[in-house]
């Protein structure tokens, strides 16, 4: 399970506790996704989280390449367009926005929203892709969910690749059973960030 952070879903003290508990209850990857923070604020938050979590849990910085470089995080998660631009070296002159992801020794993730996106990632390379959003979610209230069929098609496309398929969007303990056969893992934000009992919530997913 991947946990995507959102500090607006709980009080600050609880925020750190949620991430800590999640890391000790089986969440292997934390996507630090606090886009509204300044670089210094994001760096400080990263360092605080790093001190509190299980040493085996990876912290993947969402989108912010400068902070990723500063803290030497475990990985970077990129929006699809940004991934393409960097991989194809369209912004190589902008050193703050460039990393050599063709020769990358960190975790590299990419957000995708269509089969077309996935095909383009397959032409390049990544460790995992997020495919969203599968079910209805408050984060995307006005957008129609992609549904299970696109997940099945994506899973088929990625069968012979080394890219893991991570399902995202509206995934709950009650619907996860319908998708686990078509993805390598799931990503969760709201259900965990707002949970009062992290261990219980994670166990309810029962995806092992």
From TrEMBL:
Family annotation (Pfam families): TMP-TENI
Alphabetized UniProt keyword annotations: Thiamine biosynthesis, Transferase
UniProt protein name: Thiamine monophosphate synthase/TENI
Domain Thiamine phosphate synthase/TenI: 1-191
MF terms (GO), sorted A to Z: thiamine-phosphate diphosphorylase activity
GO biological process annotation, one example: thiamine biosynthetic process
Protein origin, superkingdom: Bacteria
Cleavable signal peptide: none
Any single Gene Ontology cellular-component annotation: cytoplasm
InterPro entries: Aldolase_TIM, ThiamineP_synth_sf, ThiamineP_synth_TenI
Top-level taxonomy: Bacteria, Bacillati, Bacillota, Clostridia, Peptostreptococcales
UniProt pathway annotation: Cofactor biosynthesis; thiamine diphosphate biosynthesis
EC number: 2.5.1.3
């Amino acid at each position: 399970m991947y946990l995507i952070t959102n500090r607006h879903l709980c009080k600050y003290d609880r925020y750190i506790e949620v991430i800590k508990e999640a890391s000790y209850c089986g969440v292997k990857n934390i996507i630090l996704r606090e886009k509204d923070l300044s670089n210094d604020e994001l760096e400080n938050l990263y360092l605080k989280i790093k001190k509190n979590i299980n040493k085996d849990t990876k912290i993947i910085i969402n989108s912010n390449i400068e902070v990723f470089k500063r803290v030497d995080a475990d990985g970077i998660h990129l929006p699809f367009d940004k991934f393409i631009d960097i991989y194809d070296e369209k912004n190589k002159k902008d050193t703050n926005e460039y990393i050599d992801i063709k020769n990358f020794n960190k975790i590299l993730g990419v957000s995708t929203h269509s089969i077309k996106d996935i095909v383009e990632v397959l032409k390049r390379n990544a460790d995992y892709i997020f495919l969203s959003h599968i079910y209805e979610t408050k984060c995307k209230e006005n957008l129609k969910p992609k549904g299970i069929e696109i997940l099945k098609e994506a899973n088929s496309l990625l069968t012979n690749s080394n890219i893991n398929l991570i399902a995202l969007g509206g995934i709950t303990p009650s619907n996860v059973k319908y998708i686990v056969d078509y993805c390598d893992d799931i990503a969760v934000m709201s259900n965990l960030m707002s949970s009062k009992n992290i261990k219980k919530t994670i166990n309810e997913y029962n995806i092992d």
